[in-house]
Amino acid sequence: MNRSTPAKAALAGLAIAVLLAACATTTSPTGRTQVVGGMSDAQLQQLGAQAFQQAKQKNKVSTDAARTRYVRCVVDSLTRELPQGQQAGWEVALFDDDSPNAFALPGGKVGVHTGIFKVARNQDQLAAVLAHEIGHVISQHHNERVTRQMGAQAGLGVLGALVGARYGDAAANTATQAGGVAAQAGLLLPNNRTQETEADVVGQRLMARAGYDPHQAIDLWRNMQTAGGSQPPQWLSTHPSASTRIQELGRRADSLMPTYQQARAAGRQPHCG
């Protein structure tokens, strides 16, 4: 006999409670309380490496050496500004793909689609993209998302949850598997909007510390908005709307100018492309 819907809901609630009880709370770079610990850092790094290897096997890696060096230069200039222990070992892959996507994974893996150059038209705009993606990693968003999704449904595909960010995000499909539009709107997607906004904050700070103009993040998103065409309503999206994002980036850019100017005065003046 099938269990009743209330019984299933009760069991699901119990499973979530048990999982979260085994997890821990931490504070994000912006001061937000996070629930993490569904997997250890070592496990997440291993899964990040597996996901990255799968991406390289399934997608064509670009043979454009100049563009690959360009991306590597920007990634290196950004990761040098991370805390000790997070700076070394970042791996970069450039994929021949016309979609304007990029992603970063636990374990220091960065993937960039060649289509990103249509919207990231100079090194500062590319830095805005990559700093945002690195921001997801250093803010433990993958750990947070995996923990939440493990609680939402036992056995949920974790590799799909890992590649979550504005670029190439599989979170919408994963959320559909976890219970449809109601789960998207009520459980997973609002937190993803929070993570996206937080990655914007962390990334814009990082690019300024590395000597990139934080105002260029605004121009990047204007380019993204132009290229994006029609978009879903903000309330049913994993990301802030482009117009909201541009306004928030603009408000922060002026306050980050002293950080940017100090970085330039200290010699952090990237010349990547």
UniProtKB/TrEMBL annotation:
Residues 1-24 form the signal peptide. Its cofactor is Zn(2+). Gene3D superfamilies: Metalloproteases ('zincins'), catalytic domain. GO terms for cellular component: membrane. Pfam families: Peptidase_M48. Keywords: Hydrolase, Metal-binding, Metalloprotease, Protease, Signal, Zinc. It comes from the Bacteria. GO terms for molecular function: metal ion binding; metalloendopeptidase activity. Residues 66-252 form the Peptidase M48 domain. Binds 1 zinc ion per subunit. GO terms for biological process: proteolysis involved in protein catabolic process. Belongs to the peptidase M48 family. PANTHER family: M48 FAMILY METALLOPEPTIDASE, METALLOENDOPEPTIDASE OMA1. This is M48 family metallopeptidase. It comes from Marilutibacter alkalisoli.
